[in-house]
Structures are given as C-alpha cells and as structure tokens.
Amino acid sequence: MHIDMDAFYASIEQLDNPELRGKALIVGGRKRGVVSTASYEARKFGVHSAMPIGEARRLCPHAVFLVPRMRRYVEMAHVVRGVLHEFSPLVEAASIDEAYLDATGLERLFGPIENMGMRLKEAVREATGGLTCSVGVAPVKFLAKISSEMRKPDGLFMLRPEEVPGFMAGLDVGRIPGVGKKFAAALASVGVRKAGDALRYPRDFWERRYGKAGLALYERAQGRDSRPVVPFTPPKSESAETTFEVDTRDRDFLKAWLLRHAERVGRSLRKQGLAGRTVTLKIKYADFKQITRQATLPARTNSTDTIYEAACELLAALSLEGKVRLVGVGVSGFDDVRPHQLSLLGAGVGPDPDVVEERRGKLDGALDALRERYGTEAVVRGRLFRTDGGEGPLPRREE
C-alpha cells in the first residue's frame, strides 16, 4: 500500500489559514527558488513542483506565494506516520509526504484491504484535522505508488494481482520508475511505448542493450518488484542549501551561510543520534554550473563548528569562477553516536582535539535546548550578524 498526502505543504497552509482555502496557493522559495508544492487550484494553471518561482508567477500571477514552514510540515508528517503505525508495524517513509505500508495478512484485523484503505484515509483526515491522502493498493511497491496517482486527490485505487498483466499492457512506459525522458525516447525508437511492449523482446536483449537499467525495465514490465517495505532506513546524508536572491562573490557572505547550514545540519544529526565523517560543499554559479568538493574528517562528528570549519576550508581552496547563485553544506558517512574514547597521543601539543570536540558538543547541546524551547532565532551566533552594513542577523531566506 502506498500513501501519498495530497499537496501536503499547501494543504497544511490552507488548513491553518481557512482564508486560503479554495485559492491558488504556491509554497516555495523566494524570487529565485523553486516551487515546493502547489495547491490543486494552482495546478490548473500548469504550476508544478520543482518549477522555478518566476515561471510559476508568470503562469499564475494571482496565486498566494508562501515560504515553506518546514517545522510545521514535519510536525504533521509525524502525526500521519503515527496513524499509519496504528494499522501496520511495517511502514516505510519514502519522503515527508508519502509512505509505504505492508498490509500482508491484515485482512484478519481490518477486513478486505480496500476497506482498510478507506479506514486509513479517514483516520488520517481525523488525526490531522482535515488533510486528505491518496492510497494505492497493489501486489508490489512500484505498482502501489503508480496506483496512488490514479485517483488523486483524496482517492483510492486497488490493483489486484490478476489485473496486473492488463494494467501493464496499457501503462505508458514513462510511468515506470527509472524511465526518464531520455530512456523513454530510446525505448520509443525500438517501438516500446507501453510497458507491455517491452515483453516483445527477450531478457538478454534488454541486458545486452541497456545493462542493469534494461533488466530492471524487463522486470517492471512484468509487474515484478522484489523490494520489501523497510520500516526504517538510516539517511545516507544530511544537507542544507540556499539559493540567493542576488548572485554574489562575497566570501564573508558565503561563509555566513555555511555557518547557518552547518547549524541546521548539525542539529538535525544530533536529533537523530548520527555523526558523519564526510563534509560536502556545494556551489552553483549564476550560469547554473554546479560543483561539489568533499573533505574526510579524522573522526565522525555532528558538531556545528567542526562541520563549518571543514566547509570553510573547502571554500578557501576554491577559486570562484564567477558569481555564486547557491551554496550548500552536507554531511555523510554516518554512524550512530557512540561513547567517545579520548586520545592519548599528542597530549600537550596544542589544543587536545578530544577536549575541543567535547566542549563543542556541550555548546551545541545547550544551543539546541534553547532553540527547542524558545525558537530557532532565540540564540544567534555573532558570526551570523550581517557584514554588509545591514541591521540584524543574516536573514533566513530559503533553506
């Protein structure tokens, strides 16, 4: 079973502010960001997720534009996940607004699976105060996801095992996960426009011509998907990035944003009990050329200052080719945070790195507690105050 919340961010905004209901609403970055979610009223004008905000304004100039409130969205996502866990212990979060649920054997508790899907939808609506979701029921994961898209919004679509061959025969091949525009064009050149068309060729044809992607297509065309519902998958990375309203080459400005992002990433890691060893700097220039640089730390960390210093070193080693449009910081190479063993080597030679890390951990913990209680702006590091003559701390634009 695949559960997909309908226009999640926009629906939450309309739920919290009844005056927005029925209006075209676009949630996303500021002038130069992208659309995170558009209400169904805005989608009628061609607005969709990942579209540049400027294009969305051109298509739907009368829409209400809002900056995302991620804390609120995460809060509601937890409410939804809580509801799903009341139906099954096997729930896999695919993203903040969608999840898979293994309903195998649950007929004994909830009756027919279709009835269970309707009960789940009503439970989500009641727990959230009115949010709707679309549910797809199918024998395997990728078909469940496609099924949830068949009756949007607020719908339920059930694909029974005996219906799969006929369903795949008429399904556009581009609907299969992993088939992008280029792959779809290549498939069209050999007469494959529907998923069922792929079965006109033998397995070795797909393996020889397209390798792993071809084999995956061949399996999907038969409605096969061996992936189980995985209740929890540790994140492979944690990152934060910002698209600036005005392109810049000001390194002090960029470093201030590196600190902002190091704070956000570090805090998220600490909340999850994770620490990473690889720090990544992401730069996108005004011409949209993108580069990344990585640094491997001697030990895993979730310290804001350690992440920030590594990102600054990467920036310092970079010769900026032009004005910067976007900057981001990421951490990967995770492991659970474990008791720290102090180093006996190098004692007395400069600041003890173990002591420094321990002190930073205490500072981060204190700041996290203050922000949790009083809000993210309760404490602002001095380095985040503006150096451009403006007043107040560096503004929190889109992150």
Explain this structure to me?
With 399 residues, the protein is α+β, with helices and mostly antiparallel strands. Among the domains are: 163-221, DNA polymerase, domain 1 (Orthogonal Bundle); 237-384, Dna Ligase, domain 1, CATH 3.30.1490. The protein is built from 13 helices and 12 strands. It has helices at residues 8-16, 40-43, 53-59, 70-87, 107-110, 113-128, 141-148, 164-169, 181-188, 203-221, 251-272, 304-316, 353-374; strands at residues 2-5, 25-28, 35-38, 64-66, 91-95, 98-101, 133-137, 156-158, 237-248, 274-285, 290-301, 324-336. A 5-stranded mixed beta sheet has the order 5-6-1-7-8. Helix 11 (251-272) runs antiparallel to helix 12.
CATH architecture of the domain at 237-384: 2-Layer Sandwich
Q: State the secondary-structure class.
A: alpha+beta
Q: Taking strands numbered 1, 2, ... along the chain, how are they ordered across the largest sheet?
A: 5-6-1-7-8
Report the total helices: 13
Could you list the spans in which at least 5 consecutive residues all have pLDDT below 50? Answer: 338-349, 385-393, 395-399
Q: Kindly state the percentage of residues in helix.
A: 25-40%
Taking the sheet with the most strands, its summary is: 5 strands, mixed
Task: Report the radius of gyration as a whole number of Å.
Answer: 24 Å
Query: Secondary-structure element sequence?
Result: EHEEHHEHEEHHEHEHHHEHEEHEH
The N- and C-terminal alpha carbons lie at a distance of 32 Å
CATH H-level superfamily of the domain at 237-384: DNA polymerase, Y-family, little finger domain
The CATH topology label of the domain at 237-384 is: Dna Ligase, domain 1
Envelope shape: globular
Please state the average pLDDT score: 87
Number of strands: 12
Highest-level CATH class of the domain at 237-384:
Alpha Beta
User: What percentage of amino acids are in beta strands?
Assistant: 15-25%
